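Incident log, structure service

09:12 report received: a user says their structure output differs between two submissions of the same chain.
09:20 pulled the input from the user's history:
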Amino acid sequence: MVTRSAQADEDALKVQQCVEGNPEALTFLQNKYYLLLRSLLVARGANLAEAEDLLADLWGDCVAGPEERPSLLEKYSDKCPVKAWLVTVATHRLLDFKRRQKLRNGGRVQNQLKSVGSFSAPVATPPMAAEGALVQLLQESLQHAFSYCAAGELLMLRLVYLHGLRQREIGRMWGWHESKVSRCLSRAMRQIEANTLQRIKQTDPWLELTWQDFLDLCHTRQIGFL
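09:34 re-ran on a clean worker, output below:
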């Protein structure tokens, strides 16, 4: 049985206190996680000024606003540690900011071309909500990686990681030695890792994610592999 840590319980309590309007609880979370979040945003592609601006907006949204605007923290569902949730929210916002920045820069280029007599038809790109953008990126990148796996590899991965079959049982089914099954699974997982990260880099070249970052974000958003 997995038990929650005292730290996780304390953080969850502070979130509830923030939602109830306790400013000291928000200060506690800021002091505890500001430097961590800033470092992670910089590591994932933001410059220092962008990271600080994004966090200023994030913490500001944690305070309920006028006209009954709810606190951002009301979206926290206690299904994951507060730390992981804050990291994911910050990454959502970074992705949304960088994509909007790219659209603005593209618009300026088009305007410059028009100003010198050239014509460039505007490309209609629907804005993506910050919540959906990251989830879509994670899912699409995984689907892309799976498309490179052989059917037998996918079946083996499902049987082991989804249905809980042991490698020895898989070996009997395939007529392989257990060590060959292990090598096949390891090779497939390495391929999935490489192709997933490559797809992310192709989609958003500025975004710097490690495989562990990717796994953590999938876990927080409850995105399954198979």
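09:41 both user submissions now match this output. Likely a transient worker issue. Closing.
09:42 reviewer note: The domain at 6-98 is CATH 1.10.1740.10 (Rna Polymerase Sigma Factor; Chain: A). The two ends are 24 Å apart (CA to CA).
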